[in-house]
Amino acid sequence: QAVDRGHYRHFMLKEIHEQPRAVSETLEGRLSQSRVLEEAFGSEVGAILDRVERVQIVACGTSYHAGLVARYWCESHAGVPCDVEVASEFRYRSHVLAPATLLVTISQSGETADTLAALRDARERGYLATLAICNVPQSSLVRESDLILMTRAGPEIGVASTKAFTTQLTALLLLIIALGRRHKLSADCEAAFVRALHNLPRQLEAALALEPSIEALAEEFVDKRHSLFLGRGVQYPIAMEGALKLKEISYIHAEAYPAGELKHGPLALVDAEMPVVTVAPNDELIEKLKSNLQEVRARGGRLYVFADAATAIATEDGYVVQTVPQSDEITAPIVYTIPLQLLAYHVAVFKGTDVDQPRNLAKSVTVE
Ligand code: G6P
């Protein structure tokens, strides 16, 4: 392989550690001190964004999870309606196309068969324009889309996607800010988000420093067969991504739930054998999340909580709390991704699985 894994034991670990740099590269030339420089996305972008009234995101796997985060951002900050669907469903479903809809595809490889098929199909249907968020400049997806926003993660070799995801989120936030300033996003808000983006590489570095304590915690998962991942709001897709990472490389069954849905089923599964991993930044849903966690604890579940210090959730009976360094609220989903990637990685290493090439999976699914 042309790409070297350096002193890292696996490509996945190298790629996890490359994220501060990959995110910086993705931001390079696209931000001023207080604004997103949308002209850096291409000269025709502005005129198209002026006309967008709605966004439809289509993707697969980890890229789909990036789309789910973007939906929260798009609706709450840009004030623009946004739908997200996995490409294999979207392409075979007849759907109602609202006027002035921008189709956004997200793909690391740009060669995923279902995502490409969805793009080709959309071109027939009369979308306003198609925009690809992609990591491979010479890919089919890039060639066939009207607008391109490249992630600049560099080659990703590990089958389980890591730096592609965090750079996709970074690119999506840039897009949503550019779109949002035409709708409900104020200049002050834009400036605050841009500040958060400038802070992000440093915050990712700080999250990577948690590795030794996450490694210690990972050992407790080795003999587990099932696990539950919880989040609320914009962190729910991060819980989904954390669960996907764990199942892909450690083969432990991992299911993500929005914490408010616990009592509609998964609580029945909770016992001392079921680790419950939770992402708990200090956001507006934290009090609700805390009471969800109490419900788990009352049923004997063991909680692994990745939390902001300000939440005051403490390690006590039934709780293992890992404090995540302070992050800005808008970019917290990107920061909280890191400990979940590290957890999955170290569980897989303890289990001795083939981390970079998990069984039955491919880096890019180019056939249906
Ligand atoms: C495969 C890979 C995943 C990836 C998904 C979508 O399942 O193993 O890591 O997220 O395809 O790939 P794409 O290249 O379209 O992002």
Automatic annotation (TrEMBL):
GO BP terms: namely: amino sugar biosynthetic process; carbohydrate metabolic process; fructose 6-phosphate metabolic process; protein N-linked glycosylation; UDP-N-acetylglucosamine metabolic process
Q: Where in the cell is it found?
A: Cytoplasm
TM spans (from-to): none
A GO molecular function term, named singly, is:
glutamine-fructose-6-phosphate transaminase (isomerizing) activity
Root EC class: transferase
Alphabetically sorted, this entry's keywords are: Aminotransferase, Cytoplasm, Glutamine amidotransferase, Repeat, Transferase
Task: Write down the chemical reaction(s) this protein catalyses.
Answer: D-fructose 6-phosphate + L-glutamine = D-glucosamine 6-phosphate + L-glutamate
Where in the sequence is the active site? Answer: K363
Q: Note whether rRNA-binding occurs among the keywords.
A: no
Q: Does the keyword Cytoplasm apply?
A: yes
- Chief subcellular location equals cytoplasm
Q: Which domain of life is it from?
A: Bacteria
Subunit structure and binding partners: Homodimer.
State the function annotated in the UniProt record.
Catalyzes the first step in hexosamine metabolism, converting fructose-6P into glucosamine-6P using glutamine as a nitrogen source.
- The protein's name is Glutamine--fructose-6-phosphate aminotransferase [isomerizing]
Q: What is the protein's species of origin?
A: Nitrococcus mobilis Nb-231
Interval of the full protein contained in this chain: 239 to 606 of 606
